[in-house]
Amino acid sequence: MARILDSAHDFHVDNFQVFKLEVRSAAGAIHDSAERCDAPKCHPETRVAVQDDLYDWIVNGDGEEERPRKFKWVTGPAGSGKTAVMGSLADRCAANGVLGATFFFASWSVSIGRRRKTAFVTTIAHQLAEYREDLKNAISSAIEKNPSVFEKNLRVQMEVLILAPIREVVRQSEAPDLQGAIIIDGLDECEAEQYHDTTRNGPWARPERKKAEDQLEILKVLQAASSEPSFPFRILVASRPERVFREFFDPENNPTPFARKLDLHEDYNADADITLFLEVQFNQIRRRYNLPPSWLPPDAIKTLVERASGQFIYAATVIRYLEMGHREPPKALLEAILKMAATQEATSNPLEQLDALYTHILESSPDPPLSLRWIFTIYRCSIHAVQAIPGTVCVASNINLLLQMDLESNEAEHLLGNLHSLIRIPPPSDQATARYDFYHKSLIDFLC
Question: CA 6 to CA 191: how far, in whole Å?
Answer without folding.
Answer: 37
